[in-house]
Each structure stands twice: as structure tokens, then as C-alpha cells.
Amino acid sequence: MTRLPPIPLAWLTWGLLASLYFVGYFQRVAPAVMVDELMRDFAIAATLLGNLSAVYFYTYAAMQIPSGLLADAVGPRRVGAAAAVAAALGIVLFAQADSLWLATLGRGLIGASVAVAFVACMKLAGHWFPANRFATVTGISLLIGNLGGVLAGVPLSEAVADIGWRMAMLISAGVTLLLAVAVWGWVRDDPSERGYASHAHPEALANGAMSPRRSLKLVFSERDTWPLFFAGGLIAAPVLTFAGLWGVPYLVQVHGLARSEAAGFTTAMLLGFAVGGPLLGALSDRMGRRKLPYLGAALVHALGWVGFLWGPDLSSAARYLLFALIGFSAGGLIIGFAFSREVNHPGAAGTVGGVVNMSVLGFAAIQQSAMGWILDRNWQGEMVDGARIYDAAAYHAAFVWLAISALGGVASVALARETHCRLRFDADRH
């Protein structure tokens, strides 16, 4: 087998698995347009709502290392198909819940199951695409995921208004179950299963069954794993916290926007995030550098949050542009996944992807819960139709931590060492 897989076949195979990331992202940010309904249905305030939304992130983060180990040991196809079935069950449980603990259980199951999607996509990309296109392909997975977030903005807001949040969630469960069938029927872990040569590094093929203990030891002992771990989480968390939960109620309660209009602004941030991933990833691949474009994007991202918090009041058009810029620059975190892969052993590609992605969702979970706690601490007692209303000062006290997080991301990237888009494992052997 010397012929590499045709590009259309590679994209179709990889794209089906990446669709699970679309589903995961849709479920991740869906609560942002259901805030009032969830508060009323479960009689909860901001702290408990933050916890309900964040449990997705906690279980997602907790599953990242196991996901990486499973992707390395079992393969993306089996892991992805099983995860889609489990996600559909979790969505049904959440949609049918008549108590907060059942809804929390459902959200937790959704997060734990779709957790495998991004790591499995990275693992699959290493087999179906050349190494010097890894950041580009991984960036496109971020685009696909964020399109799920866009669907969870204005379209879901309108669906919730028309058919209710529970029915909207049940429909999404049916789509997820169909995806499980498609992944099982079409996806293959390596092009060799379809008669083509693999793009995977020889060490990755030779160590396909690398023991979990050795994979973790290699990844944890690598110095550059850790600044990249913190960078991804500190950059992603502000976007996922604002666009994924608290941005819509902030724009509605402080700026007096209609919910669908507010969702349009957070959608601009997610669209920027979606576009920034593949474009900045491709820029990094073309430059043959990782640290410089990643650091530049992280700095722009941090300055965007500083401008949002302490800059002048903006017109609607300017606010759209600022949110899009914040999201676009945050997309630079996709470079970190290629970066972390290059500083680690090729046989532990799935494991390192899981380790780094754990921070992306783990930090977001902490921030979502923390924002709710800060809002409740600064609540002035106003309520409308059973839902708490928070003033501008309360939101500002909470959102300060978004800028602090983004600045921490800049510092973390600055500590990483350049790879020049080459596997350090190969450089060390030469």
C-alpha cells in the first residue's frame, strides 16, 4: 500500500467523526438561550444554573485523559460511535427531567460522552492527513464545532420560543443517534483499512497499543505540555463562559436587548471563534512557526476583553466587531493542539490531546460556576417571572475574571518553546 488516501475520502471519513464535535458544541452552549426557562422549570438562581450548565464541562474535562487513552488503544471509530449513543441518551434524560438532579445527571452524561469527539478527531487526523496540515485540519474541527454553537444561538432561541426547550432537545437527541449509525458504518481508524497508505508516524503505528501508564508518563514528564495545557484553558474559558452561558442574560438585562438579538451578539463571538481556528491554524502551518502566531492571537484576545470591560460604550456594529475579534483571536488556541502534539512522543498523540483539551473545558466549568456565584453575591433582589435580574455592576464584577484569565493565557504561551512545526521526537533522533 503506497498510495495515500484521496483527499475527498479523508475529509468524508474525518468529517463524520467531527460531526460529533458539532453535536457536542451545540449541547455545550444551548443553556445560554434557555436561562429563563431553566430557572423557572427548576426554581433555581444563578449559582445553581451555573452549576447545571457547568456539569457538562466538569464531566467533559474529567473524560479527556480517558478519551485520549481510549483513542490510542481502541481507535476513534469505536469510541466515537459509542459516545454518540451515550450522548443521545443523556440528551433525552435532560429533556425529560422533572427535577434538578435528573437534569444535572443528563447534562453530565452528555458532557462525558461527547468528550471523546475532539480528541478522537485529532487522533484520526494524524492517520488521514499529512503532519504539516495538522493545525489546519484541527482548526477546521473547531469551525465545525462552533457551527454547532451558532445553531444553538438564534435558531435554537427561536425553536425554544416555538416548541419549547424540551422538544428542541429531544429532536437533537434523534439526530445524534443517527450520527452514531453513520460513524459506525463509514469511519475507519486508518487508511490501511481501505487499502491506502497511512499518514501516521511509524512510531504511532508501532505503538498503537502503547500502555496508558507509558503514555501518561511521557506526556506528564514533557516540560512544554504544561504551559500549553494552561494556555488553552485560560484562553478558551472566557469565550465559553460568556458566549456559552452569561452573555445572553447580560445583554438582555443590562442592555435591554431581546433574547434573539442578544444571541446574535454571542453568535458573532462563536463565529469568530469558528473562523479563527482554521485560519490561524493554517497561518501557523504556512509560517512553520507555532509560538509566534499563538502568542500574537492570545495577546489580541486579552486586549479584546480589556476593551470590552473598560473601554467606551460601543454602537451595535462596533460591539459585533469586538465580539467577533475576541472569538477570532481565541481560535488561536487550536495552534496549541498541534504545538503540544509536536513536543510529545507520536505514539501518545491521543493522550496529549486529551490532557490539553481537559483544561479547555475544565477551566470553562470553573468559570461558569464562579460567574454564577459572583452574580448571586452581587444580586440586588430584583426578580421577573421567577428569574433573578442582575445589574451592570454585578456582571462587571463577574466579567473582570474573563480578562484576568485571558491575560494568564498570554503568559502561558510565552513560556512554551518553539517547535517550527516539526515533531521534536524526530529532531531528538537526529
Describe, in plain words, how this protein is organized in 3D.
This protein has 430 residues and is an all-alpha fold. The chain has a single domain, classed as MFS general substrate transporter like domains (Growth Hormone, Chain: A, Up-down Bundle). It has 20 helices and 2 strands. Helix 15 packs antiparallel against helix 16. The radius of gyration is 21 Å and the shape is globular. The two termini are 27 Å apart. The model has no long low-confidence stretch (mean pLDDT 88).
Largest sheet entry: 2 strands, antiparallel
Tell me the count of domains. Answer: 1
Shape: globular
Number of strands: 2
CATH architecture: Up-down Bundle
CATH topological fold name: Growth Hormone, Chain: A
Low-confidence stretches: none
Strand residue content: under 5%
Helical run tally = 20
Summarize the structure.
The protein is mainly alpha-helical and 430 residues long. It is built from 20 helices and two strands.
Detail the topology: elements first, then pairings.
Blueprint: H1 7-29, H2 35-42, H3 46-62, H4 64-73, H5 76-96, H6 100-114, H7 116-128, H8 134-151, H9 154-163, H10 165-186, H11 202-206, H12 212-221, H13 225-255, H14 259-287, H15 291-310, H16 316-330, H17 333-342, H18 349-377, E1 383-384, E2 387-388, H19 392-415, H20 424-429
Antiparallel strand pairs: 1-2
Helix pairs in contact: 1-5, 1-7, 1-8, 1-10, 3-6, 3-18, 4-7, 4-18, 5-6, 5-7, 5-10, 7-8, 7-18, 8-14, 8-17, 9-10, 13-14, 13-17, 13-18, 13-19, 14-16, 15-16, 15-17, 15-19, 17-18, 18-19
